[in-house]
Write a structure and sequence with these properties.
mainly alpha
């Protein structure tokens, strides 16, 4: 991630997996079941990949299998 362990400078990090999970949970609570993900969820874009992982985890926890055809 973007979080540094040393104390040389100020940094801002984010929990991308947690953000993807929260978004997925919210959409499921709204009754959505076919949820698309827009972004390059691969090793070249780890932030997007982590968000997609979080979304997929939320979907599976909600009883919905992620559809790879909805990842653009």
């Amino acid at each position: 991630g973007s979080i540094r362990t040393d104390r040389s400078g100020a940094t801002v990090g984010s929990d991308n997996r947690g953000a993807g999970r929260l978004a997925g949970e919210h959409l499921l609570e709204c009754g959505r079941r076919r949820i698309a993900f827009l972004g390059h969820a691969d090793e070249h874009y780890p932030e997007f990949a982590h968000r997609y992982e979080g979304l997929c985890a939320a979907l599976r926890a909600g009883g919905v299998e992620p559809d790879p055809a909805l990842q653009f």
